[in-house]
Amino acid sequence: MKQLFQTQNRQGTLVQINIFEPGIKDKLWKWLENEHNEIFWDIEMHEGGSIIIQRDVRKLNSSITFMGDNGIFELEQVDAETI
Q1: Residue 62's closest CA among 9, 3, 22, 10?
Q2: What's the order of all strands across the beta sheet hosting 71-78?
Q3: What's the pTM?
Q4: Could you give the CA distance from residue 70 to residue 72 in angstroms, rounded to a whole number?
Q5: What are the tens digits of pLDDT across the range 4-43?
Q6: Residue 64 and residue 15: Cα distance in Å, rounded?
């Protein structure tokens, strides 16, 4: 099942992913590096960073945290209704 995530402090970034998919951290790393290179370099992920995925889908409380040598970039789960 895919979940929708949004950025905390940067508007306009939405991503829909399956946080339970095997290899998702590698995919997220490549996504940030290729699609949001300015964020990747701002938080200095290239110097060695990590990705933490907090999984709590039932309470819409999941988050994805990119931690670089110079900062943190976090995505929070969003509830999207389908009509």
Answers
A1: 3
A2: 14-17, 3-7, 71-78, 63-68, 50-54
A3: 0.82
A4: 7
A5: 888 876 566 788 999 889 999 999 999 999 998 998 888 8
A6: 11
